C-alpha cells in the first residue's frame, strides 16, 4: 500500500464508487457526482469468477463448483483507476454486504448475481388484478431470507376489495413478523407508509407485473415508475442470461432496483436441510419432531405439521414450504444422479 503524500499529475487516480448499471460488460460506476463507464480488468475478472466466503452462499460445500456468471454486479462497491482522458477500469471489488442471486439460464449451474449490497427486498402484490399468489410471495420471501435481506410486503390495489379481504392476506405475513404496507396507488392511500419503507435504503423491488410497482413509484416521485419500466421491458426480452438492472435514486434519499429477473426467483442454491430455517414461524418447532431427520412433509410425529394443523402456522405458508421442499428434494436427487452417472 503506497500512499504518496502529494499525488503528481501523472499518477493514476483511484476512486471508490458504486456500480449503478450494467450494460454489455460495461459498468456505470458512480463516484461522487460523476459516473464513469468502466470495464473490469481481466486480472480481477479471473480472480472473482469463483464465489468466495463473503459471497452470501450458505452450504458452501455443496455449491463449491458453482461459478459466477458476472463477477461484478449492480450494487457492488468497487475501486476504479482513472487513466488517460478520465477513462476508468475496475480494479477491485469490496466485500459484499448482501448478495441476491439466481440461477442463470442454461444447463450448468451458474450463479447470476442480480444485486449486491441491497438493504431490503420489497415485494409488491395486488390483492386482485392480478390475484395475490401466496406461493410466489413465499418464494420471494425465502429468497430474501436466504440472502439475509430484510423483506417488506406491500399489498396494493386495496381500493378493489373490502378491508377484511386485504387484511386476511396481510395478517398471515404480519404474524410471521414481516412488515406489511397496504396501499392504493389509484386512491393515493398508504403512500406515506410506502415512502417511509424506501427512505434511505437500497431496495430491490419484486412482484408480478401489473401489481402496481410503477404506479406506486410514480406516486412518490413522478416519472420514476416509467423510467424503471423502460429498463425492465428492454432487458426483459430475449432468452439470454443478461438480466440487466439499474439503480434509481430517490429524491428523498434512498434508491430502488427493479429487475425482471427477480420476479420469479428460484431457490436453486438452497440446500434442502436449510429450507425450514427460511420460514421464521417454523423455528420454534424445529427439533421438536419425533425424528431428528424430519423433513416436515409426511413424517409421523412432525411438530411443524401439527402446528400447521392447529393453525399456529398459516396453512398457505406450510403448503408453500411443502411445495418448495419437494422441489428441492427432486433437484438434489437429479444432481446426485447426474454426478454419479
Ligand atoms: P407494474 O407492472 O407492477 O409496474 O404495475 P403498474 O404500475 O403498471 O400497474 C398495472 C395496472 O394496475 C395499471 O393499469 C394501473 O393503473 C393499475 N393500478 C396500479 N395501482 C392500482 C391501485 O392501487 N388500484 C387500482 N384499482 N389499480 C391500480
Ligand atoms: Zn417435522
What features would you highlight for this structure?
Ribonucleotide Reductase Protein R1, domain 1, binds zinc ion, globular, 14 strands, six-stranded mixed sheet, five-stranded antiparallel sheet, OB fold (Dihydrolipoamide Acetyltransferase, E2P), binds guanosine-5'-diphosphate, alpha/beta, Rossmann fold
Account of the 3D structure:
- By secondary structure, the chain is α/β, with parallel strands linked by helices.
- The chain folds into three domains: 13-95, Nucleic acid-binding proteins (OB fold (Dihydrolipoamide Acetyltransferase, E2P)), CATH 2.40.50.140; 115-258, 3-Layer(aba) Sandwich (Rossmann fold); 272-340, Ribonucleotide Reductase Protein R1, domain 1 (Orthogonal Bundle), CATH 1.10.40.50.
- It has eight helices and 14 strands.
- The strands form three sheets. Strands 11-10-9-12-14-13 form a six-stranded mixed β-sheet, sandwiched between helices. The protein has a five-stranded antiparallel β-sheet with strand order 3-2-1-5-6, with no helix packed on it.
- A hairpin with a 5-residue loop joins strand 13 and strand 14.
- It is globular, with a radius of gyration of 22 Å.
- It starts with 12 loop residues before the first strand and ends with a helix.
- The relative contact order is 0.12.
- The protein binds guanosine-5'-diphosphate (GDP) and zinc ion.
- The site of zinc ion has 7 residues, from helix 7.
Mean pLDDT: 85
* CATH hierarchy: architecture of the largest domain: 3-Layer(aba) Sandwich
The CATH topology label of the largest domain is Rossmann fold
Distance between the termini: 50 Å
Instruction: Please list the strands of the largest sheet in the order they lie side by side.
Output: 11-10-9-12-14-13
> Any low-confidence stretches, pLDDT <50, length ≥5?
51-64, 235-242
> What portion of residues belong to β-strands?
15-25%
Major β-sheet, in short? 6 strands, mixed
Helix share bin: 25-40%
What value does the Rg take, in angstroms?
A: 22 Å
- CATH-defined superfamily of the largest domain: P-loop containing nucleotide triphosphate hydrolases
- Which molecules are bound in this entry? guanosine-5'-diphosphate, zinc ion
- Supply the CATH class of the largest domain: Alpha Beta
Number of strands: 14
